[in-house]
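Protein Record: Sequence and Backbone Structure Tokens
======================================================
Scope: a single protein chain, as residues and as a discrete description of its fold.
Tokens: labelled as protein backbone structure tokens, with as many entries as the chain has residues.
Position: the record begins directly beneath this header, with no further notes in between.
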Amino acid sequence: MSGCFNINGWREIITFPMGERAAKPRHQGLTMVMDKGMGTGETQDLLKLNHPYIDFIKLGFGTSMLYAEGLLEEKIHLACSYNIEIYPGGTFFEIALWQDKLIEYLDKCKSLGFTAIEVSDGTINICKEVRARAISMAADKGFMVLTEVGKKNAGPGIPAISLAEQAGEDLEMGAHKVILEGRECGLNVGLYDAKGKIDNGDMQVLLEHIGDPAKIIWEAPLKPQQQDLITRFGSDVNLGNIPPQEVLALEAMRLGLRADTLQLMVNDTPVCD
């Protein structure tokens, strides 16, 4: 992997079982980390160890509003110094929109140094015209625009065809990627059932409508979900809502350095002299 650490010399001996991955900036194989409140020291440690493997950091929910003065800017600056896109959670956007403060919200995000914006309606309901305007306004201010489809409430959700149609419209309106809702639990939400497994029928509907799975960031906070999506789409599937402490483990899975994906590459022939 270009840009990957090689200070310990292992790559002179071992090759990645699932092959090389593209270096940043990349357009697929993206990893989005969900930060629910790390301190600046934790953030420094996270980035020092993992920066080649992280493409986005989302400051979850409305946590951006709760930082002490100066700390939010420090965290944003840290992410940008490693060329990582950073943005506030979609719920915070929804609150701003609900309170009729979208312009002020975008201006504040810009002044703080955020590089991306998530447009979502996971909790509130917004009409197509307002969604389109929000995407356009954010793009005009120079943000990378991510949108999210799906509701956060558990139980029966939006039909897969409706999610697919919304995702297609968002991409046509200029969204860089569309995030498929999975929350931080990965259970009974989006395409996941109560056990966190993907509904294959819904997945097929989504893919038939969108075509290229690289247009989607699949929120997959649980290891079995990550493994399933890598098995389906390969190492360069886009994955989101990854816990910070799981970044290195996920990258190992992407590269075949864990049994979960190494088993895809080997056969039953025994290793003999």
User: Anything to note?
Assistant: The mean pLDDT is 90. Residues 128-140 form the longest helix (13 residues). The beta strands are 31-35, 56-59, 85-88, 116-119, 144-149, 177-180, 216-219, 239-242.
